[in-house]
Amino acid sequence: MLLEQLACVQAIDAATLGRMRHEALTVPAARHWVTEYSQYQSGGWSTLSLMNESGSPTDVRIADCAPVETSLLRQMPSTQKFLTSLGLRYMWVRLARLSPNSFLWEHRDYAEFNKVERRRLHVPLMSNSSATLVTGGVRVCLRPGRIWQLAPTHVHGACNLLGPDRYHLLIDCYVDDRLSELTESAWLDDADVIQLPVGTDDEMRGHLQKALTLARLGYRQSAENYLLRLFYQRALPEGRIYDLIASLHDELGDDIAARVWRANKMERLGTDGSKGAA
């Protein structure tokens, strides 16, 4: 099941990786990083487009299109050559930077698009051992030197706890024969996968009480973030984190905030928020 959600599909030679990393870190246009999808993150995650509909690198909200190269990609010949060599049917291609102490909260992608099958390829350019992706109850360190395939219709999140900045090439593409050929021998190394311990009901009630203490001291956002970060520490049923935060606001008597977080669950996960809270 995990291989259907996340897997390595191809190695990248060190010379190619080094050239692409150099381009991502030094190209002048990469000074203008764009923060988008702010509701899905803690802050610290920003992107620039290399292929999109408009050709502008600062147009970063993805959509179905027949993409063209942006002005940024035209300054990155090694990356341009790499993308051409893959021979995929691209939807959108971005550079993504995740700063230290930053999180992409539990979510799923592509829900707003039609039912055409898509995948996302991650090409880590620079990373560290505290930068991980969580999906299916496991934490995976996406090491550079490989192309990783993600099925983002499965619930997932990402974090960079300690730094330095994590840089990934994100390739959203349509499923076709070439992608199937590229991914037919997908694999995962056991050393890259950490199984998260299952979060028990008693443990979650304890975390809720700690969050309530923070909130009653006036630190509501810190209380919400405390609960959101549990996704990276424990294997939990889908959406349980959002149920906990809604319960936090129920306990505080804030019906409006509780409704907002139940709506957040529906927006980010594509669920109706009807599952019981802790």
UniProtKB/TrEMBL annotation:
Alphabetized Pfam families for the sequence: Asp_Arg_Hydrox
Organism whose genome encodes this protein: Nocardia mangyaensis
Tree of life domain: Bacteria
Gene3D superfamilies attached to this UniProt entry: B-lactam Antibiotic, Isopenicillin N Synthase, Chain (2.60.120.330)
Signal peptide annotation: none
Name by which UniProt lists this protein: Aspartyl/asparaginy/proline hydroxylase domain-containing protein
Domain Aspartyl/asparaginy/proline hydroxylase: 20-174
InterPro entries assigned: Asp/Arg/Pro-Hydrxlase, IPNS-like_sf
